[in-house]
Amino acid sequence: MSSxxxxxxxxxxxxxxxxAALVLGACGGGxxxxxxxxxxxxxxxxxxxxxxxxxxxxxxxEAPEEDVEGDADSDRPEIDLGDDFENVYxxxxxxxxxxxxILRDSRGYFDAVDAAIIHQDTEHPALSYYIxxxxxxxxxxxxxxxxxxxxxxxxxxxxxxxxATAVDDSTATVSFCREFSDVSNVDxxxxxxxxxxxxxxxxxxxxxxxxxxxxxxWQTVEYGGAREADECA
Length: 233
Description:
Blueprint: E1 4-8, H1 18-21, H2 65-74, E2 85-90, H3 97-118, H4 125-130, H5 133-148, E3 151-168, E4 171-187, E5 193-195, E6 204-212, E7 218-227
Parallel strand pairs: 2-3
Antiparallel strand pairs: 1-2, 3-4, 4-5, 4-6, 6-7
Helix pairs in contact: 3-5
């Protein structure tokens, strides 16, 4: 199943500062470990169907699986990145529950960083929810200068060619292309355009490693990137 998901929100990386921001990858070489291999099942915490005891009564009063998932989703930090930017996710759903969960939480990485930049909030709860380990430390190093420079982007970014790869039951990689040719960089306070859109900007290939934490969230723990990769042509 293929779909396009549009998310109205401001994002962090713009063509003029793609290497400096590098919120979604790093300039220079990045390992592309992605394939079309299936992803192993995610422990969603779903309850088993209730069994009857020897008396014929229900031994358990179970919550439907969808209710459990709904409760988990309700704990996710709200991310509102405003109306001036749109992330367009292509091929957003595969039809496989586990793969889609990994891709969903990979989107959370984008959106958490974007929220911190737009709202100038280095303690935004989505940061530590979707990002951990080396990736969180590196992300903080990258977003703080952007916040201090008062730079925010407007426009539309396109994310495509996403692929999830199993490493083991609690580790996965996600690779994707991101294209910024319709994104400009503006001063948050004055609205002055600091860098206009670059229609010739080339998409960059990003590779991330995710780990499943105890709360069932696929957190991005490492990332890297390469500009003008063949996979993004």
